[in-house]
Fold this protein.
Amino acid sequence: MIKQLSAAFALSLVLLPLASRAYAQCVAGRPCRTPTTTATATAPADPTPTVCFFTSTNFKGPRFCESGQRSVFTVPAEWRDSIKSITVGDRTEVRICPEFTLKGDCGLIGRDTDELQRGLFDQVYSYAIDKT
């Protein structure tokens, strides 16, 4: 037991001056040594909700995408009678409406939709994007 304590004490006498010297260098304005790590951080998910509108079912054909939150958008004139499918980003919902300024019999979509339901198929005039 005494030998174990003596070895630990001797080791601390060696390590303590090294730690004190590193601290003194850091305080004196010299670069501090920081421990290295092999862990890798993952990038956070994109916080901006994104929605893409397609002119064909099954997410095919020309598309236009929009990102934003709690905004009312008017579908560009050339797209108003041609939207057939929609992709919706993670934690995002889009309200799509057959009339301007979110009026009419609107639908709320919270996931990719390969074919819009009757009443909205080829009839999206306005939409709003919201993060859930």
The beta strands are 50-56, 60-67, 71-74, 85-88, 92-97, 107-109, 126-131. The first strand starts at residue 50 and ends at 56. The two ends are 62 Å apart (CA to CA). The CA atoms of residues 20 and 123 lie 73 Å apart.
